[in-house]
């Protein structure tokens, strides 16, 4: 974050994080409060380490991080991660069609486990299949590596499909509705639904495409070509999570705080990610410029699901298979 962007962010937050001067004490300045929060997010150091660095109390650091993260979300979310509109989906579809060669795609979706300290009296609710405690960050990403929608705080033991179908986004945009009206793929005449693309952690739906199982794809070149096209495009969301974790290194270790504060931290980091991507205008990685061998280990993906899909979902995927094999 450049100094100019820091000052701009500080100006937005001054009314929200300032404290009154009293006869008993002079409050910590707004600039220092913001620096403490950003240092914590950017380094992932413990509250005690941050307290030593700024010569404040450990509990003071915890209070500042929670308050400032909450205000970052409240301030930046309406502008940098607003509720998607029809125009939002149209711009996203245009980007995926022109940059990633996947028409009728309005977003790439994935869920990641964010490691947290074991919550008190939580039993096995937050214990995921990777043998650590976590909350789930479910995100839909546009072609420019910015978060369109996020859902944070689900139990680590839940699956991607279950979290998605219980989210506010699903009830508002999917259940009984459509993202955008159907339209033909380029060079065809039959209308095809607009879709999200995900990995094997999601069930195949008419509005959500997933790759063919590897055992089937190896026996059919048409399915292999579809998987290559879908997985190359789905790397957008994987790259986004990688950028998020490398810039805000709090994600590289378990978040040592209560669950509510961890959720505030994740939401603030996602908003800051969009804020920096918008302001800095970082170039998009093209499919040709990506390194296929670089893993992203900070955030852990979900297990595949074997839920049975409808005939309409299989037919929709077959339309994409036919298009990519023309």
How does this structure look, described?
It is found in: Nucleus. InterPro entries: HARBI1-like (IPR045249), HARBI1_dom (IPR027806). This protein is an alpha/beta fold and 326 residues long. The chain is built from eleven helices and eight strands. The chain has helices at residues 3-17, 30-43, 47-54, 58-80, 86-99, 160-165, 168-174, 214-217, 221-247, 259-280, 311-324; strands spanning 105-115, 134-141, 147-155, 183-184, 191-192, 195-197, 208-209, 300-301. Strands 1, 2, 3, 6, 7 and 8 form a six-stranded mixed sheet that branches. A two-stranded antiparallel ribbon has the order 4-5. Helix 1 packs across helix 2 (30-43) and helix 3 (47-54) crosses helix 4. The radius of gyration is 21 Å and the shape is elongated. The N and C termini lie far apart (45 Å). Mean pLDDT is 86; it is low at 289-296.
Low-confidence segments, given as residue ranges, are 289-296
Alpha-beta content class: alpha/beta
Strand fraction equals 5-15%
H/E topology pattern:
HHHHHEEEHHEEEEHHHEH
- Total of helices: 11
Give the N-to-C terminal Cα separation. 45 Å
Which of globular, elongated, flat, extended, rod-shaped describes the shape? elongated
Largest sheet: 6 strands, mixed
Integer-rounded radius of gyration: 21 Å
What is the number of strand segments?
8
Helicity level: 40-55%
Mean pLDDT: 86
GO molecular function, one term: metal ion binding
Family: Belongs to the HARBI1 family.
Cofactor: a divalent metal cation
Organism: Parnassius mnemosyne
